[in-house]
Amino acid sequence: MKSLQNLGLLAALSLSTAKLLYVGVNESGGEFGVFGTPGTGLPGTFGVNYAFINESTVDIFVDQEKINFFRVTFLMERMCPLEFGLGARFNETRMQYFSEYAAAINHITVTKGAYALIDPHNYMRYNDPSNQPFSGSVIGNTSDPNAATTAQFGEFWGELARRFATNPKVVFGINNEPHDMPTQLILANDQIAIDAIRAAGAPQLILAPGNGFTGGHSWTQVTGNNDAPSSEFLNKLSDPLKNTAIDIHEYLGELAGRHVDFSGQHAECTQPAPTNLANLTLWLRENNLKAVISEFGGGDNQNCYDFIDDMLTYLAANDEYIGWTIWAAGPLWGTSSPCCGPDTGSLEPGMLNDLGQPDAFSNVWPNAVRPNIPKDLKRSGVSSLD
Ligand SMILES: *[C@@H]1O[C@H](CO)[C@@H](O)[C@H](O)[C@H]1NC(C)=O
Ligand SMILES: *[C@@H]1O[C@H](CO)[C@@H](O)[C@H](O)[C@H]1NC(C)=O
Ligand SMILES: *[C@@H]1O[C@H](CO)[C@@H](O)[C@H](O)[C@H]1NC(C)=O
Ligand SMILES: *[C@@H]1O[C@H](CO)[C@@H](O)[C@H](O)[C@H]1NC(C)=O
After folding, report:
1. Distance CA 99, CA 59 (A)
2. How far away, in angstroms, is 360 Cα from ligand 1 center?
3. Domains in the chain and their CATH numbers?
4. Whether the Cβ atoms of residue 298 and residue 308 lie closer than 8 Å to each other
5. 25: which strand partners?
6. Which of 35, 55, 265, 307 has the lowest tally of Cβ within 10 angstroms?
7. Which pLDDT score, from 0 to 100, does residue 165 have?
8. What is the pLDDT at residue 19?
9. Glycoside hydrolase family domain: from which residue to which, for each copy (predicted)?
10. pLDDT band at 9, cuts 50/70/90?
11. Atom in ligand 3 nearest the alpha carbon of residue 180
């Protein structure tokens, strides 16, 4: 019944023009190795505490799976060491974090010709990543003498964008999952990043996050400690190039917004994306905005395959969505599960889960993701909304 419905939808879709431009996977690992006591793993050792990609598995994704989009995480405290503070001064020693990161981005974009989403994985906080997502000072919190300022955040983005300005295949993600802060401050931080990126001469697509871990299901709702809905502020962003989309995360487990809710036992998918995203979709349409779902996930079971399939079918059927990246592959997961039940494993090709069985690349991917990879993804040109 369900698959027949899907076939009907796909047939209808194939008559219209392609809408999804960017489809792929998170490459997570650049933010690893800092958990615990403040200062742990800073700056850390490349290949031991953190790593960005395994080039061979990126090749598998591009050559065999035909995806075109990788979200690559990094930590702002490693790009801008605490002794420098957040801003335009990066770690400039010879084997520094930026060049390690740029090598990963260049492999994806130059060698393989795919698009890369640059993701400062910082929850809009800087100075203590030891207990993310809650540690660290909220950027732009003027009551916190240790907090980096909104202006410093702009300087950081201006410098980062300048370094990638001539690479058409990057997309700038302003920050991972802001939460528990005034929504107006998220707007201010997003806006200064957009202004700094454009002032640096970088024309590429920008993704701007909202509050509540940028959850799609709660986009029009109050989140945190009575913080205003993202929908009340994020339509006030302005981009002189009109090349900014909204960055959304949406998990399918018990609490739709947060992948941490999948840790441990919550392997079942219970949150239907088409229903949970309906208010967001309407808001996007009313405000003439587009969105990318840059994080979502489901576990290794038929129930989650169905929920993922329903979500990706919904995104393909609604003009407001231009892309997605599933969470997560990456070189350092080992047998761990980035989401969705301890036995799921990661999406890194060739790895095992904690039971010694093939990981999610061998089950979740072929059952729920691969059938939803469009054939006509964007392959050339500056990253853009169309
Ligand atoms: C990188 O991926 C290849 C292909 O799956 C694998 O053979 C190799 O062991 C991986 N390297 C690391 C360091 O994980
Ligand atoms: C810069 O990065 C290198 C390589 O990871 C590291 O050895 C060095 O301590 C870092 N510098 C600062 C100031 O953190
Ligand atoms: C801002 O800083 C003050 C003082 O440290 C703190 O009480 C408050 O919770 C912070 N606000 C946010 C949104 O983190
Ligand atoms: C959508 O918005 C309406 C009106 O604000 C609200 O009643 C409803 O709960 C929302 N639906 C979801 C799934 O958030």
Report:
1. 20
2. 16
3. 19-372 (3.20.20.80)
4. yes
5. 70, 326
6. 265
7. 98
8. 72
9. 26-329
10. very low
11. 13
